[in-house]
Amino acid sequence: MDAASRHSNAPHHPSAQHRVARMSEIDQFRLVLAVARTRSISEVAQLTGLSQPTVTRAVRATERLVGFPLFHRTPDGTVPTGDAPAAFRRIETILENYDGLASLDDSPVTVLRFAYREGELPTILDSAMAHWNRERMLPAKLIECADPVAELQAGEAEFAVAPYSGTPFPDGLGHRPLRIIRASRLDLVYADPPTGPIAEFLQALALA
């Protein structure tokens, strides 16, 4: 085999300017999903403590990987393209499988799951989860559903984000306020008393 053939068959390594420095593809994927959820690169940068160029590079690196644009950049925000949802589903599956590796451990809690309804995800919780995922080995993930408290009671989540109107939550559940706007209040609900990573997250949230 001549030198030209060897060169053509060699694995391709992206140049330095095509890589996000010190960031794994898993971290890039988490940022991409955060941008898809918030529709804002600047908000994701603020929530994660990263710079906007870093978040933008993560998005562009993922777009190069999938081979097509994931977002339209508009004056009104960062809007997913028509092809993006299929890529987002694949990315979610990859992250679920990656996070599922923790289940090989014997620990009773391998991932902190937060159940919420669409439109009911306070910024303070998103920010606390971003900091938690940067600093802890135990990942935190979001689960969108119709009834977060039911997910919590069924053991499908460690936390639920739910409106609080003054009516007590079911027995055995504790809660603390996340967002209060006029008469509207959202609480973070959990099994009471909290133990292990659940208690650790609540402590981290109190310090956020």
Computed structural class? alpha/beta
Give the number of domains.
2
Strand order of the largest sheet: 4-3-5-7-6
| Tally of separate helices | 8
Keywords: DNA-binding, Transcription, Transcription regulation
Protein name: LysR family transcriptional regulator
GO molecular function, one term: DNA-binding transcription factor activity
Pfam family, one: HTH_1
Please provide a written account of the structure.
This protein is of the alpha/beta class and 208 residues long. It has two domains: 81 residues, Arc Repressor Mutant, subunit A (Orthogonal Bundle); 95 residues, 3-Layer(aba) Sandwich (D-Maltodextrin-Binding Protein, domain 2). The chain is 44% helix and 19% strand. Strands 4-3-5-7-6 form a five-stranded mixed sheet. Strands 1-2 form a two-stranded antiparallel ribbon. Helix 2 crosses helix 5. The N terminus is likely disordered.
Topology at a glance:
Elements: H1 3-9, H2 25-38, H3 41-48, H4 52-66, E1 71-74, E2 77-80, H5 84-100, E3 112-116, H6 123-135, E4 140-144, H7 148-153, E5 159-163, E6 173-181, E7 184-191, H8 196-207
Parallel strand pairs: 3-4, 3-5
Antiparallel strand pairs: 1-2, 5-7, 6-7
Helix pairs in contact: 2-4, 2-5, 3-4
